Amino acid sequence: MAAIPGLEFEKPIIDLERKIEELKGFTSHKDIDISGEIRHLEEKLAQIKKDVYDNLTPWQRVQIARHPKRPYTLDYIEMMMTDFIEIHGDRHFSDDKAMVCGLAKLNGEKIVVIGHQKGKDTKENLERNFGCANPEGYRKAMRVMYMAEKFDLPIVTFIDTPGAYPGIGAEERGQAEAIAYNLREMAHLRVPIIVFVIGEGGSGGALGIGVGDRVYVLENAYYSVISPEGCAAILWKERSKSPEAAAALKLTAKDLLEMKIIDGIIKEPLGGAHRDPHEAAENIKKTIKKDLAGLKNISKDKLVDARYDKIRAIGIFKEP
Questions:
Q1: How far is 76 from 283, CA to CA, in rounded Å?
Q2: How many whole angstroms separate alpha carbon 62 and alpha carbon 200?
Q3: Among positive and negative, which fits the CA dihedral 102, 195, 265, 241?
Q4: Which distant-in-sequence residues (6+ apart) come within 8 Å of 251 by Cβ?
Q5: Which ranges of 162-202 would DSSP assign to H, the alpha helix?
Q6: Which residues pair with 86 in a beta bridge?
Q7: 120, 158 contact by CB (below 8 A)
Q8: How confident is the model at residue 53 (pLDDT cuts 50, 70, 90)?
Q9: How far, in Å, are 2, 30, 37, 133 from residue 27 at the CA level?
């Protein structure tokens, strides 16, 4: 198994893991018993992991959310679903590879799945536009959601984007209008919608597929009106202030749950979803199965009304 690249704050963990592997390799070639020392180091490693990952700062969680080995939408589809058929194009301009849409089966049940998709390497990232969708991506997503409503299929969306693409071409083709249109139309769709923020949940780019009956954020993902770097640039004119911005934005899953913006937190393996993607996928799958069982029993009118009430209830206002 290839080593997983570590983040700066994970250096003590990575160093100790490497030392344990070296000792195990040494004992396999030499007739020496150092199992006691290895066991002691493994116990020390477990304690260091607990100390580090139980006390992550918001900025450190942002770094984990951006980890290059973190599973993306297509990874979760492959691990959780069967019979996936991708649907391409918005029937207006082109196909946006930063947005994946299609039909699939989850435990034998037909669903529609939509999500942002980043690349695994530089070439694929350029092809996928680093997960930053253009207007045609949001229009493709809405086209597929209309299809879900027509055939009475539940919708599952995976959010993982630093934000919608801000280029001149995207603005010329109506980026803001495409996202606003999705917000309005998703609020009225007469089928269950379950939303998961699996990595980065940045700004309107996230909201464009983020209106749902249930909204969840993975333990080390984030959901925010702006990236920490963007916030730091506006408030302090310094990128180095990004950690302070991350804390001020209240963008972690715990913060979002406390403010009642989301419905729950999806547990990740210790160290992040990239440490054990199948465990993360299984946790998401269990949540989808549980929620669909309940949402399918709600009448379509009540489903739409409850979704509207849920959105309207977000936020606390105080009179001056």
A1: 11
A2: 8
A3: positive
A4: 58, 62, 222, 223, 224, 228
A5: 168-172, 175-188
A6: 102
A7: no
A8: confident
A9: 21, 5, 11, 51
| CATH number of the domain bearing residue 308 | 3.90.226.10
What are φ and ψ of residue 298, in 5° steps?
A: -95, 135
Q: Are strands 109-116 and 222-224 parallel, antiparallel or unpaired?
A: unpaired
Match 């989808």 to its residue by tokens: 288
Question: Is 35 in the same domain as 182?
Answer: no
Average pLDDT of the residues in 84-88 = 97
Q: Give the pLDDT confidence of 262-275 residue by residue, as tens digits.
A: 999 999 998 899 99
C-alpha to C-alpha distance for 235 and 237, rounded to whole angstroms: 6
- Of 207, 197, 201, nearest to 287 by C-alpha is 197
Whether 319 is covered by a domain: the verdict is no
Q: What pLDDT does 1 receive? A: 40
The pLDDT of residue 2 is: 47
- The length of the chain is 320
Mean pLDDT score, 108-134: 95
Q: Are residues 131 and 233 in the same domain?
A: yes
In this structure, are strands 214-218 and 193-202 parallel, antiparallel, or unpaired?
Answer: parallel
Co-location of 82 and 190 in the same domain? yes
Q: Is the pLDDT of residue 48 over 90?
A: no
Quote the percentage of the chain above a pLDDT of 90. 77
| Domain span including residue 246 | 62-312
